Amino acid sequence: MNPRMMIYEYTISDDKTKLDLAVIHRFLSQEAYWCPNIPVDIVQRSIENSLCFGVYLGEEQVGFARVVSDLATFGYLADVFILPAHRGRGLSKKLVAFILAYPTLQGLRRMLLVTRDAHGLYEQFGFQPIDNPENTLFIKLITSY
User: Fold this and answer.
1) How far apart are CA 17 and CA 22, in angstroms?
2) What is the reported pLDDT for 3?
3) The pLDDT of residue 4 is above 70
4) How far apart are CA 84 and CA 128, in angstroms?
5) Coil, strand or helix: which one is 124?
6) Mean predicted lDDT score pLDDT of the chain
7) Are 24 and 39 in contact (CB under 8 A)?
8) Residues 26-39, buried b or exposed e (16+ Cβ, 10 A)?
9) pTM of structure
10) Is the pLDDT assigned to residue 86 strictly greater than 70?
11) Across residues 83-102, what is the average pLDDT?
12) For residue 97, what is the DSSP state?
């Protein structure tokens, strides 16, 4: 399956062969607040074991997101970004819409994400705070890279 969507001159694709590991790693390790200094081998392994979506201007990758999922009941949306020079064009909205409409993610019971600063974006798609946060637990196995 290789769905694609054009947004003006931008394209969104699930084709992992188009992903630019250097662009993804540079953003995640140097600009993302959630995983500073993440090693490239960890990024590579996360890509290999996730559904991945790239945003491209021509052949240049300018955005990324991935979903960790069993493809039956649950999905976790992670590492969503648009490079700063390409922000303000609605690309993150188009990327999230593309992911939520992605055929193999249909019928999931729950999709989860964690964000410090993009609540407004995700609320447009129905994401909301957890109803009973006291029922949700997590363990932080690595505190820094």
Assistant:
1) 13
2) 57
3) no
4) 26
5) coil
6) 94
7) no
8) ebbbeeeeebeebe
9) 0.91
10) yes
11) 97
12) H
